[in-house]
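anyone seen this seq b4? input:
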Amino acid sequence: MRILSLLLFILLMQPLSPAAAKGRVELVEQLGKRIPLELQFTDSQGNQVKLEQLIDRPTLVVPVFYNCRNVCNMMLGGLSAVLPQVKLDPGVDYNVVTFSVDPLETPDMAARSKKTFMTAMQSPSYPREAWTFLTGQQENILTLTDSAGYYFMKQGDEFLHPIAAFVVSADGTIVRYLVGQRFSPIDISMALLEASEGRIGKPIRTALQFCFSYDPEGRRYVFNLMRVSGTVILLTLGSFLLFLILSGRKKKQ
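predicted toks r here
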């Protein structure tokens, strides 16, 4: 009897697996881990696609619920306003993939959502193929969200879920999470640059990485005021010193 009680105690003390942990709403960051790119979803045109067909470059992955009446729409609306401000080439330097966490949602719903937010973007030059809207089967959805540490639950007709997106490299490695309803252009740009593995223009990369650094507590990129101001002061002093030297030579001549 004691042995059975001991075994039961040990089992209860074991950490829950993601499958056993359903019913919680939590974001457990899995930086450095890969999402399974062989998973198959359905795009807004009803085509069956694997993630590896869409994630072949740095990609912003956005889990949502298309029927969501509050935070999801705000997040997608914020994205439609911010993406044209990202100084990278969509479809070349990066892609955006949005997928529904509800297996009951249909490609038609994904198509309506895509039309809504592509129209709200008010940027005719933004390539439609650079932002994909997906639906999927429950098994594939849960495999993807579990691999990203994105745990959600259904409550009535709504879904309770973290308000977050994540950026992956071309091989599916998670490099950064973006948390909140709205993301800034610099947050998206820097996360994509980190995922680019050198494929995006070096001058842009060097300038942005010099001026901004990631704050893990605030989960955002912050401007390096001390570094930039110090550099400006040094350049100003150097320019003034050079001016004095050159003007002194002219007087001697």
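The helical segments are 2-13, 51-54, 71-82, 107-121, 138-147, 185-195, 202-211, 225-252. The CA atoms of residues 125 and 177 lie 27 Å apart. kinda curious what u guys think
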